[in-house]
# Entry
Amino acid sequence: MSLWRKLACGVLLLVVAVSLAASWFAPAGYSKQDREAAGAPPSREHWLGTDEIGRDRFARVLYGTRISLLLAPAAALVSTLLAALVGGLAGYLGGVWARSAMAVTDLFLSLPWLFLLITVRAMLPLNVSPTFSVLVTFLLLGLLGWTAAARVLCASASSIKNSDFVRQARASGVRGSRLFWIHVLPNLKPVLYAQFWISIPAFILSEANLGILGLGVAEPLPSWGSLLKELEGLVSVGEEPWKFVPLFLLVLVVTSFQLLLSGRDEVAA
Amino acid sequence: MLGRRIAQHGLTLVVTALLGGFLSATLVRLAPGFDADETALDPHLSSQSIQALRQDRAGQHNLLTFYIRSLRLALHGDLGTSLSLKQPVSTLLHDRIPLTFRVVSVGLLMSWAGVLALALSTSSARTPAYDLLATVTAGLLLCVPAAVLALLSVLWNLPGALAIALIIFPRDYRYTRNLLDKAYSLPHIVTARAKGISPRRILFWHVIPIVGPQLLALAGVSVSLALGAAIPVEALCGLAGIGQLAWQAALARDLPLLVNISVLVTLVTLLANYSADVIGHAWRGPQA
# Structure
């Protein structure tokens, strides 16, 4: 493992650990209001100041990081499993199944990702409980983000299906689902892992975009998207630099993922 | 062969556009709260008016009937009326397409100028410091959400087109750089360099013919990226284009508007990709 990858791994572990210990670092929680100090700059009590309704920004950053960092991998898992199922089966079955599955994939891919995401997200109720909004946001990412991965997996499954060991297994009498589950799917693991890791930063960024556009996680739950929405009210960059901390953290985490992925994206391709 | 490819793409274009519109309409129809009509809650409306509103709404309940009727009207130039903006969809699209076209085209031109300048200079110069700087810049831009870049462009009073360029630049740069690196490491190009052939000649005679079709395909894909980027940029920068209209339509669950925008965006995306494919195919020649 290169030095950069070790560093990226260290950064990610540190961020995850600190966010998991959010209740220890910020015992007041993410929604407690200090009305006397609404919109206050950083101080000893509020390290990153407070938002416009007096909630501690540091606590919100920690809890928001926890939500984004725990649920993005969950969404990535959903999308990877869907891609494995659709793409893997299409590649394995071939013929009309593969053509139909890839036509559906093409249909999804012909709409720009963010366009598809906001359209489908806006169709779901916006006035929902915070917990439900978190689930909806990340589930949506998982359910819509499988298409590009499915294409790659279809091609991989198709090539595995025609490989010597699968032909030999077929010649030995292994048939149908057993051939797929025992011989094809396990050999898709490297591609599945790569797709899973690639999806995580992509979903973190997508959640941030949705949050800024007001379609992400509902208040009072924090997420990187809803925290970044605060930047909308800024008049100049130097005015309240502490508001950029969530952005800095997001860039740091996504950069760490990119560094970790630098070898895996070749596998995915 | 080329004619067959164009016909094949044309057919796929029409089928995908129709299916895309239908899928979009299905999603809106199945969305929770579709049957709720806020205007019917107006206490000033008489029972006849409310009945008329309900009848109008009932026409949209059967999805297939709604879609076929809309399609028939669309062929006669009538794209329906926006439920939220109370204006003909064709007028709304007609008013907003020029702005989006301008912003997206300028953004694409700026992005590609930057991508080609940087990728060509780093691939041919091979100076580690310069290479690192370009990679880090592109890498950092890739890690910033598109909506944040749009917000920063508002803060710094930068044009929306520049925000779009910054959003698509790192994605295009990464692929272009890889393509050029692979091309420059090909044995015949290494030999040409060793023989002292000028960099310009190597570029135009050896590198571009190899990477050209792939760069064209990438240019086609970047149109889709730019259209996607137009949503946060137009919504947050207050630009009254198609991206902003899509945003408003999605928030208001405006079925006729959303279906038409979906079909339009799908068509433009596919047209760009297929044009790139056809030109690339013609470039590679009949042996491809």
Summary: Chain A is about 70% helix and 0% strand.
